[in-house]
Design goal:
alpha+beta, Rossmann fold, six-stranded mixed β-sheet, binds adenosine-5'-diphosphate, OB fold (Dihydrolipoamide Acetyltransferase, E2P), disordered C terminus, about 575 residues, 9 helices, globular, five-stranded antiparallel β-sheet, 36 strands
Length: about 575
């Protein structure tokens, strides 16, 4: 088992074919990761670079902390299963399985024991004496898997291993490989162009297009929260319907004829600046359902009905889209449907994209609450209510007015429904909407008795709060930061870090550098970034200066606060 790290990996083939561009990914120990995307998007090339079968044009690949760019494939502790099995035709199954151990001069008794162990796991014990040509496709594929297993590698790579099998066998092998992953608990990286394989097998999926990663996430999150139209339409069958439209106040309007009210959840997630703009609307086929003449969103004439058994597909015209729109509804297969159909649309599930085809729905990562800040010796009193201890010492600027207006910044991920400490800030909120992600629930709430203040908070727990519930939520005061009226961060939570200057991250050649502006600490110096720890709302960046000295920086990630990008370093006494 091992984790892998790919940093700025690029592959350019002869003829300037840019197959993989700036590939950055951390693959976790024991994870089942799937690369998916249309043919030619660079999946196999990435896999082959990891295996060492293809040179890396630029970038770095680490297994654990070891750079493997220049290691021979055989020294990488990686095993790869190909779609054409790559078995030796003249050898028996036993010999095929034993081959790599023999090459490593493992003794005969151990070889026999290991072959039998692997044959047992893969259920091929009775074929050990047969040649590959005497096996079915599925059995050959199992032998190919067995050859990987027997070496007990750190990482297993699969390059479309099921594409030569018929549909039924593919389904069986799919679940066998998933079971195998649970059994051996290794790191699996699996390439496929088949979205069903990706959705059913992967812990996480990397969606690629034209050599670029589009999105990396769990199957559920990719399906429910795609970051762009490519991901939205690549996953899910039938495909998501995409419409041209525009936003008008709290509605989306298609072709001036159909108006859909945005739900409270969608309004909470809508990135500001898109009000009254041209957009694309996405509706998945299964987010339509049958309505009736009194309760419906759209009344359509159906051109075609396809009864598939468990679902029924309706094809019809809708404003904002030239092609047919498809709805997938659940009705009894024996029921007849007239051409005239009233449909409802699940408005909690609408997807909105800008004209660059990127999603304009985003969870609010930091809540800003307007706050009056009054100094009280070293502390500050916020809104006459909360004490912020040691405020003065945590301020970036030494000249703090005795009283001013600013904002409390409360990251959504730091809330809890349970009081953790006496210092916690307690807020009473009313739940307005919620959203499920595979790793958390997101609640959109408003401060009780205050119409204006909205709070988004995450919860990992399995509670089921619903709209209208009033709850107390708690925020650890040590995670609180204060911003001034122009939205510049003026406090830092960790007193050993001091901000030094607004900086910019600049790419020079292949490496990233932090280019300093004018403070003494890094005047006229370049810092080479060694490692970036991407946290939810900030990045911790380890850098080396020209003298090979190490420093750590924190960078605020909130894109809305780009002007407030601060670079922190351990305070240096000058
Ligand atoms: P995928 O596995 O997603 O189908 P590949 O990684 O095989 O895609 O290919 C990515 C791109 O690189 C494609 O445009 C392909 O034509 C090109 N390519 C792959 N192998 C080579 C090669 N040996 N020489 C030149 N171009 C290649």
């Amino acid at each position: 088992m091992a984790n892998l790290n790919l940093i700025d990996v690029c592959k350019v083939y002869k003829g300037n074919v840019k197959a993989v561009k700036d590939f950055n990914l951390e693959i976790r120990d024991g994870e089942f990761l799937v690369f998916v995307g249309p043919s030619g998007c660079g999946k196999s090339t990435t896999l082959r670079m990891i295996a060492g079968l293809e040179d890396i044009t630029s970038g770095k690949i680490y297994i654990e902390d070891k750079l493997i760019n220049h290691l021979e494939p055989k020294d990488r502790d990686i095993a790869m299963v190909f779609q054409n099995y790559a078995l030796y035709p003249h050898m028996s199954v036993f010999e095929n399985l034993a081959y790599s151990l023999k090459c490593h001069r493992v003794d005969k008794v151990t070889i026999k024991q290991k072959v039998e162990e692997v044959a047992e796991i893969l259920d091929i014990k009775e074929y050990l004496l047969r040649k590959p040509k005497e096996l079915s496709g599925g059995q050959r594929q199992r032998v190919a898997l067995g050859r990987c297993l027997i070496r007990n590698p750190k990482v297993f790579l699969f390059d479309e291993p099921l594409s030569n099998l018929d549909a039924k066998l593919r389904v069986t092998m799919r679940s066998e490989i998933s079971k195998l992953h649970k059994k051996v608990n290794g790191t699996f990286i699996y390439v496929t162009h088949d979205q069903t394989e990706a959705m059913t097998m992967g812990d996480r999926i990397v969606v690629m297009k034209d050599g670029l990663i589009q999105q990396v996430d769990t199957p559920v999150n990719l399906y429910e929260h795609p970051v762009n139209i490519f991901v939205a339409t690549f996953l899910g069958s039938p495909q998501m319907n995409i419409f041209q439209g525009h936003l008008l106040e709290d509605k989306v309007i298609l072709h001036d004829t159909l108006s859909l009210q945005l739900s409270e959840k969608i309004r909470n997630k809508l990135i500001s600046g898109y009000e009254n703009q041209e957009i694309y609307l996405g509706i998945r086929p299964n987010d339509f359902s049958l309505g009736n003449a009194k309760d419906y969103d759209i009344h359509v004439k159906v051109d075609l009905i396809e009864k598939l058994g468990s679902e029924t597909l309706l094809y019809f015209q809708m404003p904002g889209r030239e092609e047919s729109t498809v709805a997938s509804i659940h009705i009894n297969i024996t029921d007849d449907l007239s051409e005239d159909v009233y449909l409802k649309i699940d408005k909690e599930k609408l997807h909105l994209f800008n004209r660059d085809e990127e999603s304009i729905l985003k969870i609010n990562e930091i809540n800003f609450i307007k706050t009056k800040i009054s100094l009280d010796k070293e502390d500050a009193i916020l809104n006459h209510q909360f004490r912020y201890q040691n405020f003065v010492n945590q301020c970036v600027d030494e000249n703090i007015p005795a009283e001013f207006h600013g904002y409390m910044a409360l990251p959504s991920q730091d809330f809890s429904l349970v009081k953790q400490s006496e210092d916690d800030i307690e807020l009473e909120v009313e739940i307005r909407a919620f959203d499920a992600y595979s790793d958390k629930k997101v609640y959109y709430s408003k401060l009780f008795n205050e119409e204006e203040s909205r709070i988004t908070f995450f919860s990992k727990r399995n509670e089921n709060l619903t709209k209208g519930d009033q709850v107390k939520i708690y925020f650890p005061s040590k995670k609180l930061s204060i911003y001034d009226a122009s939205m510049l961060k003026i406090t830092i939570n960790d007193p050993i870090f001091k901000p030094i200057q607004v900086i910019s991250l600049t790419t020079i050649g292949k490496e990233y550098y932090i280019l300093d502006s004018n403070k003494d600490f890094c005047k006229n110096k370049y810092f080479k970034i060694e490692k970036i720890f991407d946290l939810n709302t900030e990045m911790i960046v380890n850098v080396k200066n020209q003298k090979d000295e190490n420093y750590s920086f924190r960078i605020d990630k909130n894109p809305d606060l780009y002007v407030g990008l601060l670079l922190y370093t351990k305070h240096l006494k000058r």
